[in-house]
Design brief:
Elements (H helix, E strand, L loop, with lengths): L1 H29 L1 E4 L14 E5 L9 E5 L5 E8 L5 E4 L2 E4 L2 E3 L20 E2 H4 L9 E5 L9 H4 L2 E2 L3 E10 L5 E2 L2
Antiparallel strand pairs: 1-2, 2-11, 3-4, 3-11, 4-9, 5-6, 5-8, 6-7, 9-10, 11-12
Length: 180
C-alpha cells in the first residue's frame, strides 16, 4: 500500500513538473502576454487590454504587430504597407500601388463626419522621401488614426524591429476576441 502511495506521488510530481515546463515554454516562446498602453489602436484594442502575441507566423497586410523602436519604446500598430509598395491615402481611401484597397477592420469609424477625414491624405513618396517601402520594412498605422503615433511620424518599421504578431485579447474577459 505504501509503495503505491509513493509511486503515485512520484508520478504526479513528474506530471506537474512536465506541465509547468510546457506552460513556461508556451508562455515564453509561443504565446507571449502583453498589456496595451494607449489608445492608438482603439476600437480594436483598448487601454489596459491584455493580449497574447506570437513570433512564428508570416506578417501580412492588416496584421497587428508589436515592435520596438530604436528609442526603446514598444508599439502596437496595424501593417498597412508591405515591402516594395507605395501607399497613399486620398480622401479616406487607401491606395496600394495606385489601386484602392478596402479596410474592413475600420468599420463605422471610417464614415466621414462632415469635412473631417479619418485618415489624412499622404503619400509614402512624401513621407519616406522615396516612392516605395524598403524591402526589409513595413508601413504601419494605428486604427485610431487621429491619435496615433505611427509610420506617418517615425517612418518605416524594419522587419528586425518586429517582436511579434498580436493574436488575441484575453483580459478583461468582456474584451476577449481574436485579433483580425
Amino acid at each position: 500500500m505504501k509503495d503505491k502511495i509513493v509511486e503515485n506521488f512520484f508520478y504526479w510530481t513528474k506530471m506537474i513538473v512536465l506541465a509547468s515546463v510546457i506552460v513556461f515554454l508556451i508562455r515564453g516562446f509561443v504565446f507571449i502576454p502583453m498589456k496595451v498602453d494607449g489608445n492608438s489602436m482603439a476600437k480594436t484594442l483598448k487601454q489596459d487590454d491584455q493580449l497574447v502575441y506570437e513570433k512564428f507566423s508570416e506578417i501580412k497586410r492588416f496584421d497587428v504587430i508589436i515592435f520596438k523602436q530604436n528609442d526603446g519604446a514598444t508599439y502596437i500598430k496595424r501593417v498597412i504597407g508591405m515591402p516594395g509598395e507605395r501607399i497613399q491615402y486620398i480622401d479616406d481611401e487607401l491606395f496600394v500601388n495606385e489601386k484602392i484597397v478596402d479596410e474592413e477592420f475600420l468599420g463605422q469609424a471610417k464614415i466621414k463626419r462632415s469635412s473631417n477625414q479619418y485618415t489624412t491624405n499622404f503619400d509614402t513618396l512624401d513621407l519616406l522621401e522615396k516612392p516605395t517601402i524598403s524591402e526589409d520594412a513595413y508601413f504601419v498605422l494605428g486604427d485610431n488614426r487621429r491619435l496615433s503615433k505611427d509610420s506617418r511620424s517615425f517612418g518605416e518599421v524594419k522587419k528586425s524591429e518586429v517582436i511579434g504578431k498580436a493574436v488575441m485579447v484575453y483580459y478583461p474577459i468582456k474584451h476577449f476576441k481574436l485579433i483580425k
